[in-house]
């Protein structure tokens, strides 16, 4: 079985520069020793190249040239700590600029955060952030709200307060009022629970007025 000839140059995804084989030494070492030999592609019995090298030529692999690693624009990933199958692991981490799926702003997915995602939390390597910090926080509270509303307990004032608080953060004033209106029907006028609902109603009105004034 014959081996392929000299490797082609690669465009580094970190700096965007076309790098010769001599400046890809770390990446070549990683794909030679950090992954099983089954990742070598063959054609009619001849080894025509490492699949990760071939995918890197198509910009499908996160790696970094020796220059970026030396200048600390990137740092090496540890594939053996990552969860991957048919998608290449992260051979290097470098800051990425991503457009938020929800609000459309561009945010940074830092190399340190990526390493935490894939080597500490061990998310699948293809799982990337799609939301900025603000939208990610809103997504979490939306999920929490859905959980609470699945089986609301109008007698649990702490739960009611949490639901109203989330509604206000999401600026869902009408939904907050409707929720309180339903809950008040379960309590006698003048009772502690009823007065608590009245206090929450005032908070909603004040929050809505403040929001309308600021527009």
What does this entry look like structurally?
The protein contains eight helices and eight strands. The chain is an alpha+beta fold and 215 residues long. A two-stranded antiparallel sheet has the order 1-2. A two-stranded antiparallel sheet has the order 3-4. A hairpin with a 2-residue loop joins strand 3 and strand 4. The N and C termini lie far apart (72 Å).
- What percentage of the residues does DSSP assign to strands (E)? 5-15%
Number of structural units classed as domains: 2
Overall shape: elongated
Oligomer: single chain
Strand order in the sheet with the most strands: 1-2
What does the average pLDDT come to?
Answer: 86
The succession of helices and strands, N to C, reads EEHEEHHEEEEHHHHH
What does the radius of gyration come to?
Answer: 27 Å
Q: Distance N terminus to C terminus?
A: 72 Å
How many helices? The count is: 8
User: Structural class given helices, strands, pairing?
Assistant: alpha+beta
- What's the count of strands? 8
Organism: Hymenobacter negativus
Protein name: Zinc-ribbon domain containing protein
Pfam families: zf_Tbcl
Domain Probable zinc-binding: 95-140
Detail the topology: elements first, then pairings:
Layout lengths: L9 E2 L6 E2 L5 H9 L6 E4 L2 E5 H7 L8 H5 L3 E3 L15 E3 L1 E4 L6 E4 L1 H10 L12 H17 L7 H13 L3 H12 L7 H23 L1
Antiparallel strand pairs: 1-2, 3-4, 5-6, 7-8
Helix pairs in contact: 5-6, 6-7, 6-8, 7-8
Tags for this model:
215 residues, two-stranded antiparallel ribbon, two-stranded antiparallel sheet, 8 helices, 45% helix, 13% strand, elongated
